[in-house]
Structures are given as C-alpha cells and as structure tokens.
Amino acid sequence: MVAQQHIVRAYDEELKFLSARIGAMGGHAERMVERAVQALVTSDTALAQRIIVDDKMLDDAQREIDEKAIIIIARRQPLAHDLREIIGSIRISSDLERIGDLGKNIAKRVVAVSEARQPLRVFRGMEALSGLALAQLKEVLDIFASRSVDRIASLRDRDDQIDQMYTSLFRELLTYMMEDPRNIAPCTHLLFCAKNIERIGDHATNIAETVYYTATGRQLPAERPKDDLSHDVIAPMAGSQ
Amino acid sequence: MAAEGLERRQDRPSHLSMLAILIVALLAIAVLCALQPVLLWPGLGFALALIVVALVTSGRAAERIALPDSGPWSRQDVQTPPSFSQLDLARAVADPLIVFDRNGVVVHANPAALSAFDPVTPGTMLQLRFRAPELQSLVEHALNGTDDREPVDYAERFPVERMYRVSVARLDTTRGLFALIFRDHSEARRIDRMRADFIANASHELRTPLASISGFIETLRGPARNDAAARDRFLGIMQDQTGRMARLIDDLLSLSRVEMKPMLKPGETADLRPILEAVIATIGPRAKEAGVTIETDLEEGEAKVLGDRDELFQVFENLLENACKYGRSGKQVDIGLHRITDGGQTGIAASVRDHGQGIPAEHIPRITERFYRIDAEASRNQKGTGLGLAIVKHIVTRHNARLLIRSKIGEGTEFTVFFPDQPAMS
Fold first, then answer.
1. B247-301 pLDDT, tens per residue?
2. Can you name the CATH fold of B194-262?
3. Class of domain B76-184
4. What is the DSSP track for B149-209?
5. Per-residue confidence band for A1, with pLDDT thresholds at 50, 70 and 90
6. What is the distance in angstroms between the Cα of A63 and the nearest Cα belonging to chain B?
7. Where in chain B are the domains?
8. How much is the pLDDT for B83?
C-alpha cells in the first residue's frame, strides 16, 4: 500500500494518519452496530445508553479527518493517487459517521421496543439481517486495508441479499401489527431498526465504490449486469418476475 | 518484498556517510601529523583504531536488513543467517503471528495468520485490518513504547466466529519490530455458547411434543381409561411425538457438532462425485417409497474440492431429503454436478432441484435460520425439525462455498452449492 514514498517524510506520515484514523473509525462503527443490535435483541437498555454516548468518538474522528485532509490539500497540493486517497478518506469517514448515527438510532429505540416483548422470531431475523450488513461492512473495510479491489464485485451482490432479508422482515412485522394493534408501536420501531441496518449495508456499498475509485481512478460501473446471479441467494429463476 | 527493499534503501546512505566521515578524519590526522611530527605514532594508532571501528559498524549496518518476507530463498542475502531461524520460528508457531514495524505496517505474517486473516500480506497497515477498539489501543501502546499491556480479546465474526486473545511483544528495540500473537480460544467460548443455545433451543422446541404427550397420558389415565380404540390412537400419536423429539435432539446435536469446529483442516480434499453417488444410494429407497425418481446429471471427471467428506455428505443428504419431502408433488428430483462460472469465479457447482410447489420469495432469505418454517404444520407432517438447512448453511460457509437458492412458485426449487476454485495456497 505504501509502495511509493514521498520525498517529504511528514507527508507520508500525514497520509498514513488519515488511513489509521479511518481504520479506528471503522472498528468503532462496526462495534457500535453490533452492540446496538445486541442491545435490541437482549433488551439491554444500559448497553444501549453506552452506545449512544460512544457515538461522539465517530463524530470527533470525522471532524478530525476532515480538518487534516483540508490541511494536507492546502499544504501539499496533492495530485493523482494522493489526491484520490485524501478525498476518499473524507468520503469514507462521512459514510462511517453515518453508520455510527444509524447504530445510535437503533440503540435509542431499544427502550421503546423492550417495553412489549416481541416474538423471538423477529429478533432472529433482525440478527440475521445485521449479520449480513456487518459482514458487508467488515469485508469493505478489509478491502480498504488491503486494496484488493478485485473482491469488490462479489461484495455488491450481498447488498441484494440484505434487501431481500429486509423485505422479508418488513412483511413479518406487518403481520404482527395486523394481528394486534398494541404491537404497532414496538413493531414500527423494529421496522425502523431494520431499515437502519439495511442502510448500513448501503453505506458499506458506498465505501466500496470509494475504495475502488481511490485505488483505480475509475468509477465502479453503476449497474451490475442483470444475469450476474448473486451469492447465497435468491435469484429468481429464468423467466420469472 | 516492500519492507525488505525499504530497509535496504535506508542502509546505503549510512554506508556512504560513514565512508565520508572516515576519509575526513584520516585527512585531518594526516594534516596534524605533518604539522606536529611528534604526533606521528599516536596519530597512526588512532587512525588504525578508527578504521577498525568503521569496518565493524558498517558490517553491522549490512546486517540490518529486517525480517524478509516469505519470498523465495534465492532473494535472501547470504550474510543474514539469523533471519532464517527467525522466519522458521514464526512458521513453526501454530497460532497466528504477525510481525510489524514501528509504523504499524505488517512485515511478516506466518502461515497460520495468512489463512486466518485473509488480507494480511506484508505492507498492510495493521490498524486498518484489525479495527476493534481494544486492538487499536493495544497496537498504539506498543508503538508508543508503553510496555506490559494486558492481552485483549478479539473476535472475528465473519465468515465464521472465532475468538482470540491477543498480546503484543517487542522483538527488537533498535529495529522497532513487534509481534502480535493471537491465541485462538474460540473452542472454549463456543462450548459455553453452545450450552446456552442448546438449552434455549431444546427447551423451546421440545416443549410442544412434551406437552402433547403429557396431555394424552392424562386422558388415558382419566376419561379414556377403558376406551381401547382411543388408547390405540393416542399411543400412536405419542409414538410420533417421541420420534419427533428424538429427531430434534439428533439434529440439535449435529448442528452443535458442526458449530463446534468452525475451522477446516487445511489441505483436506474430497471428491464430490462419489459423495453424491453415496447420498443417492442412501436416500434412494426412501425416495422410491415417496414416489420420487432421482435423475442425475454428473459431469465426467474429478470434482475435487477442499473439504470434509462426512460433512459434505451431510449437506447433500439433507438437501436431497428435503427435495424428496417438500418437492414430492413434482415426482422428480434432479441432481447435477458441473463446472460453472458464478460472479466472475469459476468453480464446481453441485445442485439438487425438485419440481415441487416452490418457495415464496419472501421466505427464501430466511429458510436457513434455525427453526424457521414456512409452514409449521407441513414441516411437522414431514418429520422436519427446522434444523436441516441451518446445518447445510453452516457446513457450506465453513467450506468457503456458497449456497444458492433459486425458486419459482409452481415449478420447484433448486439448491446449488458452489465451490469456487481455491487459489493455490502457499
């Protein structure tokens, strides 16, 4: 990754600082989402409170990265790969900050959901959904660490899987609401939680696109070809739909 | 390679500067001796000592090449025999071990680390790959020179859950090399989790048949005491229920067993073709009983994949059994084995397809969850436990393979297990 060196060593160190900061943010965001879903599933309101406080680190880190990046641009006037790297850091940090916000939002809903006990099945679904989103996020950040952009293609497919899972949960929650109007409030909260997780997956995909751009200087093709059957899922058989 | 090159580049300037200083010093001594002949002998002695010191230090500088990575031996410098033993030592450690420099960049990762954490090739930044906050602070403390940090726990959740206890050790102060050592203690943690899971699942799922059995016993002892016809019927139902409980326990145990050992033994291969044939031979009689014919379309040639024969047998046994149960109305089940390309990867795909009623799209993402049933009643009638696909999914994930499910209402369902070709392991 740090293949070429610059004449000014401080410049290298500044770039490295940005990367390391993103790594730290990524770890924090992963942890927050994981804990938030855990708090939701186990109705652990104390854990939820801690997560809400934790979000500050991501906000601070994003601000720090922004400032550092602007200073580097102003001072070093970077070109080509360096410039992409810096702009990429800004973008990725803002995606990670959003992921943290979504995790925080899930944590905030823990109290409302835990007031009425929901069927275990919903939580299993929620865990599975967050598992997919977290796997996606981890993979993206691993790719960022190693810049192995050739793995990005398989990663975008997982987004479909998350969408399908979300749709399935959505239907299930609707049936609970129809069964008993008292379920409407907690189930709506759960619906928002599911939506948040789904959007975490979207942010992960955004990061993947940024990483690809940083490494290659080209944009990922916007639409993947239709007949590219996704992994582990659910492609409709030929002729359906 | 990057680290090696980097270190060498730093060595050259130090050689040159050393030479320059030496020449200047010798010149100075020569001038001094010319001015003050009395100083000739002490001057010569001092010059000799200077040359000896310079030779020794430059020799040490040549040795300063850091741990070379696991590249071919021919690239190694001949004058660095110690690095052989260091590398061999790292290689001999069964736990993942990563050597990093004072910038937090990976210099060497032993084979265990390479296989456990996919992209940790030399040159990767440690703080990017291991992002857990505890690990970040551990590495940071090591880099800042604060020693004696307690080991921290680190969990890697995907693709399979593994827990490590990580400690950091300083290898060499002058070079600023550190080692990150991972001790895998997933096993112990998993046994704890398994016990909790097992109790939760078993108590939940066993309660229904137990309740029904105890209800029937009550009836048999009370109102139906002298009713021979009812007694017979009730005993039949009770037998079904105990059978169900036994199956459930079997499946729970086998799922737990699979979850217990998430890592595959490296290098073990299995040929899919005889496995599929054995599965067909096992299920065949039952399929015939159910009025289902099994059609095979197995591509010629070897279909070797990395994996465990018994586990793969269980995968296809469960899939074929499901196809015969739930795709019964289609009268036919197709089994295929082909080389295909999926998502840009080539590999071997083994598929089981039924011609039954199909699975509604909203259920497909979730049918591999434990105890997820599309139609609880139908599943129970078919002696399903709700764990078969969970077991399949788990084994498939462990094999780095992918489970593809395609279904169309009214036309049937196809389960494909896709084994991507493994890049040659180093």
1. 888 888 887 777 766 566 666 788 888 888 888 888 888 888 888 888 888 888 7
2. Helix Hairpins (1.10.287)
3. alpha beta
4. PPPEEEEE-SSS-EEEEEEEEEEETTTTEEEEEEEE-HHHHHHHHHHHHHHHHHHHHHHHH
5. very low
6. 19
7. 2-62, 76-184, 194-262, 265-426
8. 55
**Cβ contact, residue pair B404, A233, below 8 Å:** yes
CB B141 within 8 A of CB B133: no
Q: What is the pLDDT of residue A29?
A: 92
Q: What is the pLDDT of residue B61?
A: 47
Which are the contacts of B26, defined by CB distance < 8 A and separation ≥ 6?
Answer: B47, B50, B51
At B169-223, the pLDDT tens digits run: 888 777 778 888 888 887 777 777 777 777 777 777 788 788 888 988 988 888 8
A240 CA: distance to closest CA in chain B (Å):
7
- Residue B365 and residue B282: Cα distance in Å, rounded? 29
- Between B121, B204, B343, which is nearest A146 by CB? B121
Contacts with B343 from chain A: Cβ below 8 Å: 153-154, 157, 228-231
Coil, helix or strand at residue B398: helix
Which residues 50-109 of A are in CB contact (within 8 Å) with B? none
Total residue length of chain A: 241
Chain-centre distance for alpha carbon B114: 10
Span of A66-80, B49-63, B142-156 with lowest mean pLDDT: B49-63
Neighbours of B415 (CB within 10 A): 25
Contact A154 B345 (CB under 8 A): yes
Closest residue in chain B to residue A226, using alpha carbons only: B343
Q: Which CATH superfamily is domain B265-426 in?
A: Histidine kinase-like ATPase, C-terminal domain (3.30.565.10)
Q: Which range (A20-29, A228-237, B360-369) has the least confidence? A: A228-237
**Taking a C-beta distance cutoff of 8 angstroms, is the pair A23, B128 a contact?**
yes
The mean pLDDT value of chain A amounts to 82
> What's the CATH code, domain A9-216?
1.20.58.220
CA–CA separation, B56 vs B286, rounded Å? Answer: 81
Q: Which of B98, B105, B131 to mutate to test the interface with A (most CBs of A within 10 A)?
A: B131
Kindly report the average pLDDT of chain B as a whole number.
Answer: 77
Residue A229 tokens read as 């059957």
ipTM of predicted assembly, 2 dp: 0.74
Segment 144-173 of chain A within 8 Å of chain B by CB: 144-146, 148, 153-154, 157, 161, 164-165, 167-168, 171
CA distances from B53 to B18, B26, B48 (A): 10, 13, 9
- Contact residues, chain A, for B401 at CB < 8 Å: none
Across the interface, whether the CB atoms of A20 and B127 are under 8 A apart is answered: yes
Question: If you ran DSSP here, which 8-state letter would residue B105 be given?
Answer: B
Rounded Cα distance between A204 and A193, Å, is 17
Which residues on neighbouring strands pair with residue B153, listed in sequence order? B165
- In chain A, what are the domain boundaries? 9-216
Residue B158 has pLDDT above 60, yes or no: yes
Distances (CA, A) of A200 to A40, A132, A143, B157, B216: 16, 10, 17, 17, 50
